[in-house]
Amino acid sequence: MLDFHQEILPHSPMPPADEQFTEAANYWDLETLYADLASAKGKRLTPMEKRHLRGLLCGYSPSEIAEKLQKTPKGVETDLCATLYKYVKSLVGKGIEKIENWRNITEWLEDAGYKTQSSAKLPVSNLLPENSVVNISNISIEKNQIVIVFKLQIPTSPDSELSIQNLDINDNNGN
Question: Cα separations (Å) of 79 from 53, 70, 83?
């Protein structure tokens, strides 16, 4: 009789396919990317193509992907050249460009807007409260309420761009 905790099958050193390179989902819009690449390909991506793509998006080289998938580096590189590289080039309008380095793929996809979150770390010292600025321009009492008009500046990363196109600011004083 088997103990409840015993395994019937031998333990596999490789995680299930859908659990490989899952950290890519933390920084990339995988569902949109899969759909758009499928459109460029003319049919859905295979599970292996998705796995290779996630590996690249995680920053792994083709040889590192091969090692993690227990495949030969030359085989993974051949697969990438015959499949994903062509689809990405078609998707981002780089059909005639030569891929100098596997990193071109992630750069092109990031430039095309598929990256959802930057993996770069912000220097926390720039975001500390002492680097924020509060300017109080007016304090008054109106209709039994204290009204404080102020401007708050909180620094973000130097390269961040905040969009305020649809911001509706109403001045209650009619100014």
Answer: 11, 14, 6
CA distance 31 to 44: 12
Tokens for 33, please give them.
Answer: 């990317």
Q: Provide φ and ψ at 97, rounded to 5°.
A: -75, 145
**Minimal CA–CA distance to 158: which of 128, 136, 127?**
127
Instruction: Provide the pLDDT for residue 12.
Output: 44
For the stretch 10-36, pLDDT in tens is: 444 555 555 689 889 999 999 999 999
8 Å CB contact between 19 and 107: no
DSSP 137-162: EEEEEETTEEEEEEEEE----TT---
β-bridge mates for residue 151, sequence order: 135
pLDDT at 61 over 50: yes
Q: How far apart are CA 83 and CA 100, in angstroms?
A: 16
Beta bridge partners of 153: 133
Confidence (pTM): 0.59
Task: Enter the DSSP assignment of 58.
Answer: T
Residues 72-83: pLDDT tens digits? Answer: 999 999 999 999
